[in-house]
Amino acid sequence: MSDSGVDSVIGPVVGPVSTSVPPPLISTVDLSKEFVVRERGRKSIVTAVRDVSLEIAAGETLGVVGESGSGKSTLGRCILGLETPSSGTVAFDGTIMTGLGHRELRGHQRDMQIIFQDPYSSLNPRRTALQQVMEPLEVLTDHTDMRARALEALDRVGISETQAERLPRSFSGGQRQRIAIARAIVVRPRFIVCDEPVSALDMSIQAQVTELLQELQRDLGLTYLFISHDLSVVREIATRTAVMYRGQIVELGPTPALFAEPKHPYTQRLLDAVLVPEPAIARERLAHFGASVRSPLEIPADSRLVEVLPGHWVREG
Fold it and tell me: Which Pfam families match (predicted)?
């Protein structure tokens, strides 16, 4: 384990490495991101992500939860290269991505895609569903029959060929998110960051889209980083779950174990506050959650993740 984080979400390496254990698809080491904030003529530094070290195995879903402002989305954007980390490294399938030039990064973009939260703003209102899905093919591939490939992706997510020529305003919110998903999978990536992909949808549609994401993962061998404030969705879809607080991972472990027996005080309070049957109540509680726990939960910046159970890590302090 590194001084500031965790060697591996699978566990520390002891003795010879078995050749039967594949390397992680995604790994970060001491990943940090700082932003300069200017207010009333004064400049300050805000640390959004602090020394995050983790690994994501091929084919799994790592859920990331925490209150608003905990660093969840910034972590995902740093992994994809949409934000430049202030320090630390990101590796994809063994290749260090941090520090690569634009041209070198471009070669990996088709392997790493993102699904954004809001299907209303993530689509171009002036382009048809088919044009939206063809765009990544035009930019990232030299595929010879892009129309057929795009129609195939749309059909896979439940948008028919007769609907493909419509503009986004002709679709419901759930259908728009399906188009966004088709756009993410059309280049046949290996890794997708799902950044709150169902939070803007009605409950019945959330379940359908979540089921679709799980089906695509099984069929296409996808790996997900699934960011969400909806703990019930994370409990359903995630193989493992990481809990973030003020830019740090405070607990990480197998999802069933973490939800059944949370070890860190922040995780315990988070689950008690928002894991309720009514989603609207959960969202309201989560919106006010940070103010009630920040004062009593001062975690030293140099604290370390400790393995308390096999594969279950908790931050000291």
Answer: ABC_tran, oligo_HPY
